[in-house]
Each structure stands twice: as C-alpha cells, then as structure tokens.
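FIELD: query
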Amino acid sequence: MNTRKSKQFQLLVFLLLCYIPHSFSQQNDSNCRVLLKEISGSYHGGCKDGLADGKGTASGEDSYTGTFKNGLPEGKGVYKYKNGNMFFGYWKNGLKNGKGEFKNLIDGKATIVKGYWKDGDYVGITEPDEEYRITNLTAIENYKIKNEKGDRDFIEISFEKVNKKYIPRDLEVTISSGYKIEQNFKVIIQDYIFPVNCDMHFTIPTTGGTRQCNFGFTIYKPGKFEVFISNN
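FIELD: result
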C-alpha cells in the first residue's frame, strides 16, 4: 500500500514539474509586451520585466523575427510587411539601423536595395559614420590613414622605406576628381568632390628584384587626411 502511494506521489510530482515550466512559458509570452504597434498582436520569445527581450517572434499586421530589447526590435532580424516587402538587417530602438537589405515588391517583381540605414532611413551603400575605406591593398607592409580635421579638405600621402621618406620613381596615382602635386616628399591631393577615389601603383626594390605594390582608398568625409605607407 505504501509502495503504491509512493508511486502515485512520484507521478504527481513528475506531472507538476512538467506542467509548471510550460505554464510559466505560456504566461511569459502572453504577458510580454511588444511596443512597436505594427507587430504587437502576439509574441513568442524571451521576456524581461514584462517586455520582449532576446530572441523572439512578434506578429500583427506585420511580423518580425529576430532579437528584441526593451520591447523593441534591436540587433539582427527579419521584418515582413503586410504588403509582402521584407527587410533583412539590423535594428536599434525599433528602427532600421546599420547594414541591411530591403526587398521591395512591385507588381509581383522584387527589387532589392542593399546598403545602410540610420534611424529608419536609407543612407546609401556606405556606412554613415565611415570616413574612408581601403579598396586595394597589395604588397604593402604597413599603412595608416588619419583625419586631422583641418579647415581645408585635402589628402597628404607620404612614403617611407628603411626609415627614410621618399616618393617612388615609378609612382602612378589615379584620382576620381581634383588635382595632385608633389611637395617635400609628399603627394598632395586637393579640390576634389566627395567621395574621392585614389589608386596608387609603384614598385620597390627587393633582394630578389622588385615588388609590385598597389594601394587604393576612398575618402567619404571632409578633413585633412594623412596617408602613410611604409615598406621597411
């Protein structure tokens, strides 16, 4: 008799242990709020202090699957609009922020826009806070690009080999706009239009002969940019 009651008690405890987490999970989802109106109909996922937090899925007239913070999309996620459009990318405070891809459906045909968003608005194919980008780098040992934030916009390029400043004899510099001059072992580029692209090609002597070097960059922001290239 005692054995039978013991087994019944163990079964009851087992059922309770199975039920309580499930019940808590359901309560967690139903009591967890999503603060973005368009996706606030239902929610399943992580919750903190009564707000969607962590990975989850929210649905309303639109739907979103990804990460949340304080009840809003935050981090990486996929947003599906009621008209069939979709956004794959990064969010902050419930707005598109960072790198992403927008799929726009027009008459059943998809058009895809890639690039960067800031506070919900598309800002282009380059990161909004990006000052420059390296576009070509071949056989360059060291380089540094620094914006000194001067009153005038220009680019100052200097080269160094065996701790000595010099300008390569066969240096070829191609720029998308503006003009260039050589002065005091420096190449200076000015009067250009943003963004400005610069590509350089030159050779350096080595023990076994010569080495072909290529260096390219694009400047997006105003300022005095110092470009330093070293092959020591």
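FIELD: remark
Residues 2-30 form the longest helix (29 residues).
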